[in-house]
C-alpha cells in the first residue's frame, strides 16, 4: 500500500507519520511545490519509525497532468492544503482516478466543479476529514444512533494555546497566516431546519477538566448532518467553537467595526481589504512559536430518548501537544484522522464515489477502527451517559 500526502506545512508531516508507521504501507510520498518545506517535513520525521519509506516529490499542482501521473502511483492521497489550493488536488485526483481525503473543503465557488469532475471519473473525495469538520460529525452520528430519538445535538470544538496571551488569547494552530475570523452570519438548527444566527453570538461558559474555564460561541452547524436519518427531525442543533474567555467579544468588535470585511476600501488612494490588514498586523502576535504548546478541546452531546425514557450521551476529549514526537495537538487530531481514513480507503474498507462527507462512511467497523487507531496514537475520547434526563 502506498500513500501520498499533498502539502507539507503544519498538518502534512503528521499525516505522513501515521501512514509511514503502518507496516502495511511500503511508501509515503511527501508532495509539495516547495523543496524547502519538504526538507523541513523530512527533518521532522527523521528517525521516527518508517522514515525510510518517505519519498520526496517536488511538484506544482498547477501542472495537472504531471500531478495526476504522480498520484496514479499511489493507492490514496491526503490533501493537507489551504482551501484555495484544494481544487488543484481534486483535479489531479479525478484525472488519476485515485481517492483523495481532504483535511478541509474546497472554496465554495470550486465545489460545483469538484462534484462534476469526481462523479464523471468515479473518484472518491472525502472533504472535511479532520477534527472539525470530521471527527465532530463522525462522533455526532455515533451518539445519535445510540438513541431511539434525538431531540438535541450540541457540538463544541476548538484549538487553543495552553496559555492565553494578548491580544486575542489565541494562536494559529492549523496553518497559514490568516486569523480564522469572518464577518458572515452562520447557522444553527431549530425544528429540523437551518436558521441564521450571528457568528460569535450565543456565548456559553464551558469547563474542561485539566484546562479550566473557556467559552463557546456559534460557528456554524454542518448542514449535511441533517441528511442522516437519525438527525432529520432534530429539534435543536448547535455547533460552537471553543476559545479562552473573551475571544468572542474581541471578534465581535472587529466585525462591528468592519475590520473583518474582504470588500476593499480606499486608503490614501490605495484599495485594501480590511481583513487583510488585520491579518498582517495580527500574524506576528498570533503565530505559534516553537516553544509554545496547544490544546484541542472536543465535546459532542446528544439527548433524546432511549427505550421510552429520557437519555443523553456525550463524548469528550482534551488533547495536548505531543512533546515526544513534536506534533501539535491540532495536527494530531486533524492530520492523524485523515491519514487513518486514507489507509482504510486504500485497503478497500471504505468505499464510495464523488463527494462524500466522512460521517456517511465512517460508521460500524470503520468507526471502531478509527477510534482504536486514534487511541493507539494517544488521541482518546471519554463517553458519558445520562439516563435520567437530557444533557443541559
| Overall 3D shape | globular
Instruction: Give the biggest beta sheet.
Output: 9 strands, mixed
Report helical residue fraction. Answer: 25-40%
SSE series: EHEHEHEHEHEHEEEEEEHEEHEEHEHE
**Over all CA atoms, what is the radius of gyration?**
21 Å
Count of distinct strands: 18
Span between N and C termini?
46 Å
How much strand? 25-35%
Which consecutive residue ranges, at least 5 long each, have pLDDT under 50?
A: none
Structural class: alpha/beta
Total helices: the number is 10
Task: Describe this protein's structure.
There is one protein chain. By secondary structure, this protein is an alpha/beta fold. It has helices at 12-20, 35-45, 64-71, 86-96, 108-121, 135-144, 247-256, 274-286, 329-346, 365-376, and strands at 2-6, 27-32, 54-58, 76-79, 100-102, 124-126, 149-161, 186-190, 193-197, 204-208, 212-218, 236-243, 265-267, 270-272, 294-306, 309-320, 354-355, 382-386. Strands 7, 8, 9, 10, 11, 12, 15, 16 and 18 form a nine-stranded mixed beta sheet that branches. Strands 3-2-1-4-5-6-17 form a seven-stranded parallel beta sheet, sandwiched between helices. Strands 13-14 form a two-stranded antiparallel sheet. Helix 9 packs across helix 10. The protein is globular and about 50 Å long. The relative contact order is 0.16. The model has no long low-confidence stretch (mean pLDDT 95).
Amino acid at each position: 500500500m502506498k500513500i501520498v500526502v499533498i502539502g507539507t506545512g503544519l498538518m502534512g508531516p503528521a499525516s505522513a507519520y501515521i501512514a509511514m508507521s503502518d507496516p502495511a504501507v511500503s511508501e509515503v510520498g511527501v508532495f509539495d511545490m516547495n523543496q524547502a518545506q519538504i526538507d523541513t517535513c523530512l527533518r521532522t520525521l527523521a528517525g521516527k519509525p518508517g522514515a525510510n519509506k518517505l519519498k520526496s516529490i517536488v511538484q506544482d499542482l498547477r501542472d495537472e497532468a504531471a500531478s495526476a501521473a504522480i498520484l496514479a502511483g499511489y493507492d490514496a492521497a491526503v490533501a493537507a492544503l489551504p482551501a484555495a489550493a484544494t481544487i488543484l488536488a481534486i483535479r489531479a485526483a479525478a484525472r488519476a482516478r485515485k481517492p483523495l481525503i481532504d483535511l478541509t473543503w474546497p472554496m465554495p465557488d470550486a465545489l460545483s466543479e469538484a462534484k462534476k469532475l469526481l462523479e464523471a471519473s468515479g473518484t472518491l473525495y472525502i472533504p472535511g476529514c479532520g477534527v472539525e469538520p470530521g471527527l465532530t460529525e463522525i462522533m455526532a452520528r455515533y451518539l445519535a444512533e445510540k438513541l431511539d430519538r434525538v431531540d438535541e445535538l450540541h457540538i463544541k470544538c476548538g484549538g487553543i494555546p495552553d496559555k492565553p496571551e494578548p491580544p486575542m488569547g489565541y494562536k494559529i494552530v492549523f496553518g497559514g497566516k490568516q486569523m480564522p475570523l469572518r464577518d458572515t452570519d452562520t447557522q444553527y438548527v431549530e425544528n429540523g431546519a437551518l436558521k441564521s444566527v450571528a457568528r460569535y453570538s450565543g456565548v456559553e461558559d464551558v469547563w474542561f477538566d485539566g484546562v479550566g474555564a473557556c467559552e463557546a460561541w456559534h460557528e456554524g452547524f454542518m448542514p449535511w448532518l441533517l441528511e442522516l436519518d437519525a438527525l432529520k427531525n432534530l429539534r435543536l442543533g448547535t455547533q460552537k467553537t471553543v476559545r479562552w474567555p473573551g475571544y468572542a467579544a474581541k471578534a465581535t468588535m472587529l466585525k462591528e467595526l468592519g475590520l473583518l470585511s474582504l470588500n476593499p476600501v480606499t486608503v490614501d488612494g490605495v484599495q485594501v481589504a480590511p481583513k487583510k490588514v488585520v491579518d498582517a498586523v495580527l500574524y506576528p502576535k498570533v503565530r505559534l512559536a516553537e516553544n509554545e504548546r496547544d490544546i484541542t478541546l472536543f465535546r459532542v452531546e446528544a439527548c433524546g430518548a432511549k427505550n421510552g425514557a429520557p437519555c443523553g450521551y456525550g463524548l469528550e476529549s482534551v488533547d495536548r501537544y505531543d512533546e515526544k514526537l513534536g506534533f501539535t495537538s491540532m495536527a494530531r487530531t486533524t492530520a492523524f484522522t485523515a491519514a487513518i481514513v486514507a489507509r482504510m480507503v486504500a485497503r478497500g474498507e471504505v468505499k464510495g464515489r464523488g463527494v462524500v462527507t466522512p460521517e456517511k462512511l465512517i460508521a460500524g467497523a470503520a468507526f471502531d477502527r478509527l477510534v482504536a487507531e486514534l487511541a493507539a496514537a494517544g488521541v482518546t475520547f471519554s463517553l458519558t451517559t445520562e439516563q435520567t434526563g437530557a444533557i443541559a
